């Protein structure tokens, strides 16, 4: 029997009593998809997924996307798997929500530990809905009406130009040849729960629109400080066999870079999302 052990009152659950290798249909995945909306982060210990089984489980939760808008997948047989290899730039020690620099960011992510360092390499998640509610009522009202610019060029433009010759992946039916910034509401209404959450992150959100540059910097500092509050976070210490699924619409995450030159390799599959909708 599947058991959900909450990690905090609003964020995270440890899930036991389920073999993800058996979760291969939307019907089988439906209870976990519902739990994902409720808990936002699901931790599955002691799993034994191959790349093919990883893909099959992800497809039971939603529609897998290509590995990344720019970076190619694991191989020709597994184009959905994004390899996060610390030795090849696969580090992300900043709060971010996956791929918000595209018009239609992923619904969620399914991350599997492949090679872990002997110590360190934890991942933290933060509750963007709790961060929103922590703001004072006047600031929440202001945030409700704001729009932000999200830009992935600082992280992926050089890779697209220098390593791929300007030919990225096919994302939402379009070949990615440039990374133009996109606009998203600062406060996103979750399409399944209806709850509001901050939808900005220090990794990809560069500016607020319709305000001065100084106002943008000051307001983003307020929002980013709320996102980073420890009481809204969970921290996972990876073990072999761990799989973690998170809701990209209501969380941000941070890959702690505290393992030096030790090897850390993770495989990630993202699920097709929708265009963020504001208040």
Automatic annotation (TrEMBL):
TauD/TfdA-like domain ranges (all copies): 4-270
SUPFAM superfamilies membership: Clavaminate synthase-like (SSF51197)
Keyword vocabulary terms for this entry: Dioxygenase, Iron, Metal-binding, Oxidoreductase
Name under which the protein is recorded: Taurine dioxygenase
Lineage: Bacteria, Bacillati, Actinomycetota, Actinomycetes, Pseudonocardiales
Coiled-coil zones: none
Known cofactor(s): Fe(2+)
GO MF, any single term: metal ion binding
Family of the protein in this entry: Belongs to the TfdA dioxygenase family.
Keyword Phosphoprotein among UniProt keywords: no
GO cellular component terms attached to this protein's record: cytoplasm
